[in-house]
């Protein structure tokens, strides 16, 4: 039997962060990862490949819109083999670096799936057994089973298959209004696909305030993307070369058809087959139940990343892995989501940190808010921004910044100004006093900050 101090199950972002911390703390560590390729979701099929494709689509859109400046480029053609080839080249580099880190000898790496036999023993696929004092589960997530009748039979595109080099469809129905769905929707639309987005909730990006989501919807419609919200999905049918989606909205049954349909209706924690019941690890639905220290219901087992949530965000998965490992090492730490940060890489980009306006009001907080539009801001007007704004949310009594949102050009970069301000617990007045160079996109934050400081 193989014996270790700690075994980390999963070698993605959360698992690697945990293993690195444990090894630095002197623990004899093993990493078990049975995925076909090492690297994790973010590098192989998530953040990095999607942003590479989105950059290509943004370049095409910029060239098409350059005519406003008297720059005529002629027909913009797409070589899909080279487009996806460039993405694959970048991902091989990213993945290769992570694979080198996982195999550099700081721990024992087992390329295998595993399941618990009891609270302290794992069985590998080849029958070997690993025993440890502690375990950290970081098994990630998988695409959720299609929740709509007929969707599975329609062979939908997913966030995995849409990353592969294939003919760009002439038309596409995107099911779901979250970040993944919207990023793929705009990618295909900017490559010439006629795209329809169908969202079940009342607005896109249900985790964002409605005013932020509505700006993204407005931009999508301006680009020719059809957007339906507040729907009930009824059925998906593939008939020959077409796919039909039937849905209900405001009591009326509607249908749209396209060449392909994209399943963007969520992911599920990858916990099946782990034998968690043999280890005393309980689930909340499909997620592993954890406390603020990332400890599961079995005191010697921790979890991190998408398998436990509550947010499927890479930088939080890394932090959870570090927190879990620190607690195993006897250095107590807990998670703090006060600076919860989200970014959607559509154009305009949508980003938020801390409390949204809706969340703050629901929590009974007394708040004040101020916004300023990008289409009245010099630098963003030069860049052609037509939609979007920045918003600050402050405590009505103290003026401390509780949250911020940015929907507009480079929103994912600009939101970090508010992250830093909130990390320092700055008031709107203190934020407004920070000098900003002119003309820059970043100086737009001074307008809502000054309004709140003067109030």
What are the salient characteristics of this protein?
FAD/NAD(P)-binding domain, globular, 13 helices, 7-stranded mixed beta sheet, 5-stranded antiparallel beta sheet, 3 domains, Enolase-like, domain 1, 23 strands, 455 residues, alpha/beta
Polypeptide structure, described:
By secondary structure, the protein is α/β, with parallel strands linked by helices. The protein folds into three domains: 2-143 and 268-328, FAD/NAD(P)-binding domain; 152-265, FAD/NAD(P)-binding domain; 341-454, Enolase-like, domain 1, CATH 3.30.390.30. Helices cover 31% and strands 26% of the residues. It is built from 13 helices and 23 strands. Strands 1, 2, 3, 4, 5, 6 and 18 form a seven-stranded mixed sheet that branches. A five-stranded antiparallel sheet has the order 19-20-23-22-21, with helices on both faces. Helix 3 runs antiparallel to helix 4 (80-102) and helix 3 (47-65) runs parallel beside helix 5 (179-190).
Mean pLDDT comes to 96
Strand content bin: 25-35%
Highest-level CATH class of the largest domain: Alpha Beta
Which CATH architecture of the largest domain would you pick? 3-Layer(bba) Sandwich
Q: Please mark out the parts with pLDDT under 50 across 5 or more consecutive residues, or reply none.
A: none
Radius of gyration computed on alpha carbons:
24 Å
Helix content: 25-40%
CATH superfamily of the largest domain: FAD/NAD(P)-binding domain
Report the sheet with the most strands, covering strand number, pairing sense and barrel closure.
7 strands, mixed
Work out the number of β strands.
23
Taking the alpha carbons of the first and last residues, their distance comes to 68 Å
* CATH topology-level fold name of the largest domain: FAD/NAD(P)-binding domain
Q: What's the total helix number? A: 13
Shape, per Cα inertia axes: globular
